[in-house]
Amino acid sequence: MELRHLRHFVALAEEQHFGRAAERVYVVQQALSNSIKNLEDEVGVPLVLRTTRKVQLTPAGKEFLEAARATLAEADKVIERARRAARGEVGRLTLGFVSGLVFGGLPEVVRTFRQRYPNVSVELRELTAQEQEEGLRSSQLDIGLMLLPVRDPSFVAEALWRQDLVVALPSSHPLAQRERLNISDFKDEPFVFFPRQIRATYYDQVMRWCAAAGYTPRIVQEAIEVPTLLSLVAAGIGVFLPIRFFQRVSLPGVTYRLIEGAPVVDIVAVWRRQEDNPVVRAFLTVAREVLAVERIGEE
Description:
Layout: H1 3-15, H2 18-24, H3 29-43, E1 48-50, E2 55-57, H4 59-86, E3 90-97, H5 106-116, E4 119-126, H6 129-137, E5 143-146, E6 155-164, E7 166-170, E8 180-181, E9 190-193, H7 200-212, E10 218-222, H8 226-234, E11 254-259, E12 264-272, H9 278-291
Parallel strand pairs: 3-4, 3-5, 8-11, 9-10
Antiparallel strand pairs: 1-2, 5-12, 6-12, 7-11
Helix pairs in contact: 1-2, 1-3, 1-4, 2-3, 5-9
InterPro entries: LysR_HTH_N (IPR000847), LysR_subst-bd (IPR005119), WH-like_DNA-bd_sf (IPR036388), WH_DNA-bd_sf (IPR036390)
Pfam families: HTH_1, LysR_substrate
Domain HTH lysR-type: 1-58
């Protein structure tokens, strides 16, 4: 039994006339008559009574009409769901991210995406860059958001937005009284920072920047989470060089200042090169739009 037979039957039942029903479903009258006859042969009982003036349904036809309408309605839902899936409007997205992004960019992107695509289930996983790469390879993740460059040729990486580094100082520090500083101003200052194994690229970039200014930062305390590092700053233990969006973390005792010539950090989205999930494409489109306003120099 084909869906077109059901559509022909419903049109005939509602129009009660072969000519009008044929026009409605865009076939010639003889083709419609043959379609109804084939349907009756398959069902095994007469569904319509043919008279010279109009068409009437048999008792079996009346029962069949309700079922035919329900079947067509369900078929339309299935077809529309498939079309929406092809547009990335339904489905599931598993997104990996490094912890710091909860303070800049990620909440805005996810909120906008969920508003625009309410029928897509979004699962967020806080992971290191290495864990995200492993998740992408095993198809446990659809997209990763990280700070590290990715050299695996099986992945595509796109810098979605860029942020420069700033300095977080104890509010009582004399340098906090100045609006803009230079990296050489921290030559004799104690630093708090991530362990290198947690943020290798970030760590190395800061080390190179300081080395170009003629010194190696004296790291007196390490921590793996930004809020912890900022708490250490507030306690006067040292200075910290976070990405600019961490200025959103307002902590008593911490003052943020711009640094002349500060390097920038790329925040990248990573996905499988052969990825064909429309939901991934939809998310990337939203991320590009939202994060455009987060680009360096717009704050």
